[in-house]
Specification:
Length: 132
Amino acid sequence: MFDATDWIVIAAGLAAIAWVNWYFFVAGRAPVAATAGGGAANGAGAQEQVITVDGGYSPAVVRVKAGRPVRLVFDRKDSGSCSEELVFPDFNVRRFLPTGQKTVIEVTPPRAGRYEFTCGMSMLRGALVAEE
Ligand SMILES: [Cu+2]
């Protein structure tokens, strides 16, 4: 027979499974967007956005103003081989991201458009979306 402690363990286990499924199948696909620098769009300040790298990029879409420098700070949390390399083809960037460190990548989107970045095998995807 199960006693109360067993039920708590079972419930916790089911909750963990539900969370894992939600994390990988729902959260990963949600179009999470952020606007770099918050109020910086009003002035000449740097457009900076921290992107957490943990089995994916969060936020996966960063909105910026075209023609102005952008600082993307990749904060890598995971240690999977998939995310160790960042490729940003439009800017000729190919950079190793050390786990537990922040790697700053500075680019200037020349014009409005969507500039995709990926891991070394193009499995993880994110994009810089520049607007006029
Ligand atoms: Cu990969």
